[in-house]
Each structure stands twice: as structure tokens, then as C-alpha cells.
TrEMBL record:
Residues 1-111 form the CarD-like/TRCF RNAP-interacting domain. One of its GO terms (biological process) is rRNA transcription. It comes from Andreesenia angusta. Pfam families: CarD_C, CarD_TRCF_RID. Gene3D superfamilies: 2.40.10.170, CarD-like, C-terminal domain. This is RNA polymerase-binding transcription factor CarD. The gene is carD.
């Protein structure tokens, strides 16, 4: 159970801060929801309290764990399938896992691939989505704004 003010990660959406816990009736069903405010894009997301475990909601990582994420970004490209469809599904599974290290690996691999030969529209969209997820958690862990987080990621990818 999380409380107001807790910083959490919602897989596929990114990190944010719980700003309220409220009961809402949606489609005739009353449920309790966390309202999470994202640091990037000024978006609010409602998460059913009784589904957080199955969704994979977790607290943000520590500052020391963030150093590992930055090391992953600066690492070498890992082995990826040459088959676009397999590579896409594999990367999507990594993003859906909610594991920030897996997301960082996707950002690194797709960024390096983009530099080498460019990305398809689908993989470019995936890269942008993975980057937003990564940036939102970096912003909260490091207490940065979006631009500072983007600069940190760009420096790490060099």
C-alpha cells in the first residue's frame, strides 16, 4: 500500500508522485484509486488500488541504483535479433516488465541502432516511449526537471 506523496513507477507509463487516494464510481463500480502526477508532461494517471501488484507498480529506485542505470546507458549494444518483429516484441516485453534497467537497455540499444542505420517508425516510437519512462524516473530520483534528465541521458549515451 502506498501513501500520498510516495513516488512510484507504473510500468508502460513511467514514474510519478501519488497526489491523492480517492474513491470513484466508474461503470457502476466503486473502487479506490491512486492519482499519480507525472513529472514530465504534466499528466495525471489513476491506478486502481486493488490492482497495483498485478500491474507491477513499484516504488522508485534509489539514487545508488540509478548509477547502475546510467552505466547501462553508457554500455555496449547488446545482442538483438535481426528480425524486426522478434526484436520489437522482445523490447516491448522489457518495457512492460517495469524494470528500469531493462528499459535503459532498450533505450541504449535503440539509440545506438538509430545512429548506425536509423529506426523504423515503430521502433522510433518505442524508443521515444521507453525514453519518457526512463526520464520520468530519473527526474524523480535525481530531483531534476525534464531538460536536466534529458541531458543526463544524452551524456550517458555518448
Amino acid at each position: 500500500m502506498f501513501d500520498i506523496g510516495d513516488k512510484i513507477v507504473y510500468p508502460m507509463h513511467g514514474a510519478g508522485t501519488i497526489v491523492s487516494i480517492e474513491e470513484k464510481e466508474i461503470l457502476g463500480e466503486k473502487r479506490r484509486y491512486y492519482t499519480m502526477k507525472m513529472p514530465i508532461g504534466d499528466m495525471k494517471v489513476m491506478i486502481p488500488v486493488d490492482c497495483v501488484e498485478e500491474i507491477g507498480v513499484r516504488g522508485i529506485i534509489s539514487n545508488s541504483d540509478m548509477e547502475e542505470v546510467l552505466e547501462i546507458l553508457s554500455g555496449e549494444k547488446s545482442q538483438m535479433s535481426q528480425n524486426w518483429n522478434k526484436r520489437y516484441r522482445n523490447n516491448m516485453d522489457k518495457i512492460k516488465s517495469g524494470d528500469i534497467c531493462e528499459v535503459a537497455g532498450v533505450v541504449r540499444n535503440l539509440s545506438l541502432m538509430d545512429r548506425e542505420k536509423g529506426l523504423s517508425t515503430g521502433e522510433r516510437k518505442m524508443l521515444n516511449n521507453a525514453k519518457q519512462i526512463l526520464l520520468s524516473e530519473i527526474a524523480l530520483v535525481k530531483n531534476m526537471n525534464k531538460e536536466e534528465a534529458e541531458n543526463l541521458v544524452a551524456e550517458s549515451l555518448c
